[in-house]
């Protein structure tokens, strides 16, 4: 069965304390892995797309990487404004995505 | 560009009532989607459309209907509201960017629906 699992469910970090979020997937024929950020009461906001193992993308303090079975979202020296829920999704045919349940990140000053 | 807009932002329904959630996008995207998000759960696809006049079921279509008469609009209809339909509903759209296009989806702000 096609599945996307994110861990941990919640993560509390001190400002400046780097860490990683995990997204593992079991999908045949990966056609793209997406990372989104979701703030409370708002819709998901697109961050990155990764297509093939070994690919990496960066945006400010965030770096996303991809292997054949999982993706990591690395957060370097996070700030309180990075607090949000981070969603991972996998594209498993031309038009549709499977979403994970997300990691709720809290960064304290 | 306003992107993806949804109305209403909040709504309370009684069991058995009907309503339509509106979704409009101004990016000329072919693909549009309806999701529901329950606490602690991922986004679940309800229905999607690959262009005007074409719709298909997603993972959780029961109790919902859609139509796509224009490229811009993709309304979601609840015919007989049930407490199980209490959720936050998100509309999204994406454009076709070629066979290797990223196909990222752009989301609206959501509609929070409570059925009592």
Folded structure, characterized:
The complex is a heterodimer of chains A (109) and B (116). Chain A is mainly beta and 109 residues long. Chain A has strands at 3-7, 10-14, 19-26, 33-38, 45-50, 56-59, 62-66, 70-75, 84-91, 97-99, 103-108. In chain A, strands 2, 4, 5, 9, 10 and 11 form a 6-stranded mixed β-sheet that branches. Chain A has a 5-stranded antiparallel β-sheet with strand order 1-3-8-7-6, with no helix packed on it. In chain A, strand 9 and strand 10 (97-99) form a beta hairpin. The radius of gyration of chain A is 13 Å and the shape is globular. The N and C termini of chain A lie far apart (41 Å). The model of chain A has no long low-confidence stretch (mean pLDDT 93). Chain B is mainly beta. Chain B is built from no helices and 11 strands. Chain B has strands at residues 4-7, 10-13, 19-25, 31-37, 43-51, 54-57, 64-66, 76-78, 87-94, 106-107, 111-115. In chain B, strands 2, 4, 5, 6, 9, 10 and 11 form a 7-stranded mixed β-sheet that branches. The radius of gyration of chain B is 14 Å and the shape is globular. The A-B interface holds A 4, 32, 34, 36, 41-46, 49, 51, 87, 89, 91, 95-102 and B 4, 31, 35, 40-45, 48, 50, 58, 90, 92, 100, 102-110.
